[in-house]
UniProtKB/TrEMBL annotation:
Alphabetical keyword list: Glycosyltransferase, Transferase
Gene3D superfamilies listed in its UniProt record: Glycogen Phosphorylase B (3.40.50.2000)
Protein known as: Alpha-D-kanosaminyltransferase
Highest classification ranks of the organism: Bacteria, Pseudomonadati, Planctomycetota, Planctomycetia, Pirellulales
One GO MF term: glycosyltransferase activity
EC code: 2.4.1.301
InterPro entries: Glyco_trans_1, Glyco_trans_4-like_N, Glycosyltransferase_grp1
Class of the enzyme per the UniProt entry, highest EC level: transferase
Organism: Posidoniimonas polymericola
Glycosyltransferase subfamily 4-like N-terminal domain: residues covered: 24-129
SUPFAM superfamilies named in the record: UDP-Glycosyltransferase/glycogen phosphorylase (SSF53756)
Length: 340
């Protein structure tokens, strides 16, 4: 009896494996998580990432009181690698799904989620931690630009660096500091040195949150000009844009993914064509030549975050969803204004 029990569990996993794209390892890990949840006996289970929730539901977790928060990678790269039907069982369950943008909501619907099971809850920031800080004088040169993000293709640092170097070549006084680390670090450093602007463009590596906030206070504006990778990976919201606006910094970004839902083009920042170096240069030149716009855009950005992107608003939305789950009202119709 004791010897046959593990065999029966393995057989169960293998049978389930034939029905889904989840691996035996993922299903086994989900089963261990379910046992832990049974010991807690929670009234609501809030799971981050569809790639975590999917194996749980496939392994037998009841989704009646399941809330799944998606973050992007699980909705683009995983379906690209493992098939668009990987979440079929999860989407057929009564789980409620939260997405940080309309862009991500639409992507989940394309993968098979019922639109009325999706609730839009943008990721918010703590306005006390990211407060408006006085920066360098508006008319000071060089114009100081900060970029924060993993050094990966999706973040588009190469295009930002090329744009900055082109402007430095013709004498526009600029300074770019990039916080972050990743697989493209060496390649980007080689690009900076090849362009001959190592004294004006610096890779600062990965830094703690306190250092990031400190760098925010030293810059005139924030820039991160991302693109959509061939895998489909793209910014579904971009919390760092919210953080920059909360500190009163204008944003230069790409009109890609869900970025336009957090950066208001022409009001809190300028959205560029993805991968278009000339478009990025035009945006940077605008702020260099119109220094008063730095303060105007920055104030609008702070107000934008206060009105719709604070952490308190995010937590209130999740609290409302928890109460909905507790009352066994499986219908997020009360939140439809967030869906479309």
């Amino acid at each position: 009896m004791i010897a046959s029990q593990p065999r029966s569990i393995v057989q169960k996993f293998r049978m389930e494996r034939r029905k889904t794209s989840w691996t035996l390892f993922e299903l086994a890990a989900a089963t261990r998580t379910m046992k832990y949840l049974e010991s807690l006996n929670p009234q609501v289970v809030h799971c981050h990432f569809g790639a975590v929730a999917g194996p749980l539901v496939s392994a037998g977790l009841s989704a009646e009181n399941l809330l799944v928060t998606w973050h992007g990678y699980d909705s683009d790269v995983i379906p690209h690698k493992r098939g668009t039907g990987i979440y079929q069982k999860l989407f057929a369950s009564p789980a409620t799904h939260t997405a940080n943008s309309r862009f991500l909501s639409n992507r989940l619907a394309q993968l098979g989620a019922d639109r009325y099971s999706i609730v839009r809850v943008p990721m918010g920031v703590d306005l006390d931690r990211f407060s408006i800080r006085s920066g360098p004088p508006l008319d000071a040169n060089p114009l100081r630009i900060l970029s924060v993000g993993r050094l990966a293709e999706m973040k588009g640092h190469r295009f930002l660096i090329e744009a900055i170097c082109d402007l430095l070549d013709i004498g526009v006084p600029l300074r770019l500091d990039i916080v972050g680390d990743g697989p493209l670090a060496a390649e980007l450093e080689c690009l900076i040195q090849a362009r001959g602007h190592g004294d004006s463009v610096a890779l600062l590596g990965s830094q703690p949150h306190d250092r990031v906030r400190s760098e925010m206070s030293k810059c005139h504006l924030f820039a991160l000009t991302g693109v959509c990778e061939p895998t489909g990976q793209v910014e579904t919201q971009g919390v760092v844009f919210v953080e920059a606006q909360a500190t009163g910094r204008p944003v230069v970004a790409s009109n890609v993914g869900g970025v336009k839902e957090v950066v208001e083009d022409g009001r809190t920042g300028i959205l560029c064509e993805p991968g278009n170096i000339d478009s990025i240069k035009n945006a940077l030149c605008y702020f260099h030549e119109n220094r008063a716009a730095l303060e105007r855009f920055g104030s609008s950005g702070r107000k934008h975050v206060e009105e719709s992107l604070s952490i308190n608003q995010m937590l209130e939305s999740f609290d409302a969803l928890y109460m909905d789950r507790l009352r066994h009202r499986h219908s997020p119709n009360n939140y439809r204004k967030h869906v479309l």
